[in-house]
Every structure is written in structure tokens, then in C-alpha cells.
Amino acid sequence: MLGGVSLLVGAATLDLSTLWSDPAQLQVVTVSRIPRTLALILTGAAMAVAGLIMQHLTRNRFVSPSTAGTIEAAGLGLVVALLFFASAPVLAKIGVATVFALAGTALFVGLIQRLRLPDPMMVPLLGIMLGAIFGALAELLAYRANLTQAISVWMNGDFSGVLQGRYETLWLAGAAAVLAYAFARQLTAAGMGEAFATSIGVPYRLILGAGLAITAFTTAVVVTTVGAIPFLGLIVPNVVTLIAGDNLRRTLPATALGGAALVLACDIVGRLIIHPYEVPVGTIVGVLGAGAFLVLVLRKGNRYASA
After folding, report:
1. What's the total number of domains in the chain?
2. Any idea what DSSP says for residue 32?
3. Within-domain flag for 150
């Protein structure tokens, strides 16, 4: 239903009665509206799945690409790619961003495993601090190369420029989400801890690395193509797992649908608030996500206080 509404909402007015007989209106739908709707669905589904994988593998409900430094690391990789590989194709830039996102995520996971923080709320704070460092490095490089305005766009997801031929790389993020579903049972076992996973024959470190690689690749593709969507991987997985539990085989499809629905809804609202202008999706999701993150922190704090 939200996808259908997305096809009808925009700066250009569509008349359904003359849609198939008017070449101009038909072009608006095929070149702009359908690609944009598909991009919204792919982005929402893939980033929600990435957040669920991170939360499950780290066994912390506060962890997501936004609170683990993954998004900022991917942005740093994109800046490096533009500085040193400016003429490279988009897939090459995605590859560089993926390497940086994977390295940043691996550093985050290594730190929380080594430090063994007693308070789960300290884990996302560590990730936010790590992300701030990556963001500062990206800003420094962008400032020296006169790319400051460009990096501000990448760090706030916006679908206003999505057209046919400019979104197709997002299918790679969708493929990564499907791959995660194929390994759902192994990821579920890895989320139970190394001892449990090893006892049932699951290669814990291999599955952990695969899960982090899927998360890093998904984040890199989304940041490179449409920009960052903050807290998307935090809101949806928490809501879905609260209802459906922690079995990834069961929760991954619902998480993907929930992420797509949230991004579609936020995009529709963003197009209607100041019509015919737009508010970026990243701004709306960021406001909702910040509120949800605050609620989670307060609930966890109240639980500790009552204990």
C-alpha cells in the first residue's frame, strides 16, 4: 500500500485516467517514481536486516550501523575513494567503502570483546565515539579536498535524485539481505555465543566474519548510492524481535518488510510536509530513531534502577 502511495506522490501531478495515453506522465512514472520506490524498499529492507544481524551477533539491542561507527567508516572510505580513485567506477568506490566499513565494524567488535564492558549501554556509546573519530577524519580529508558539502549530503539519506540508472547498485544490498536469510540458522547459533555455536558444529568466527561483512557491504552500498539513513537499523529490529523473538529465520523477513515500510512512510511524509519541496528521508528517520534510542536507554536504565 505504501509503495502504491509512493508512486502517486511527488512534485508532478499524475492523472490516472490519462496515465497510459500521456507519454510525459508515463515517463515520470517509469523514469522517476518506480525507481525511487524500488530504491526506498531496497534501502529500508537491507539496512533493517543489517541492524538485526549486528544486534544479534553482538547480543546488544543498542547496536546498529549508526551506533557502531559502520556508517561513518563507510563515509570515510567513500571520501578516500573519491580522493584517490575519482575516475573509478561506482562498484570500485563501493568496494573501498566496504573495506573501510568492515574494518571499522571489526575494530568496534574487537574493542567490545576485549574491554568486556559491564553495562550494555556503554557499548553503543563506545560505537558513537568511534564513529565520531571516523567522521572527523572524513571531514578533515573532505575539507582539504573541498568536498565538505558533498560529505554532508552523503551523511543524510536523500532520494530526490534517484532516477532510472542511478539506483541499480541498491539491488546488491538487497542480494546481501537475501544471503543473510540463507545463513539465518548459522547466524542465530553464532548469536548464542562461541561456546554454544562450536558445540553444535557452527564455525563461530567464520559466521561472525560473514555477518559483519554482510553488514559492512550493505552499509557501503546504501551510503554510496543514496546516503546514510541513521538509526534505521536500530528501530525496526527492536520492534520486530520484541514481537517475534530472536530466531533470525523467522524475524528476518518481518524485519525487511518493516524497514521498507518505515522508509516508504518517512519518504511520503517528507514529500508532503513542504510540498512541492522535500525533507530528506535521513532527517525524518533520524528524528524518529533518536527518540527510539532515548526510549530504549531510559527503559534499560529504569530496569537497572529497579533491580
Report:
1. 1
2. I
3. yes
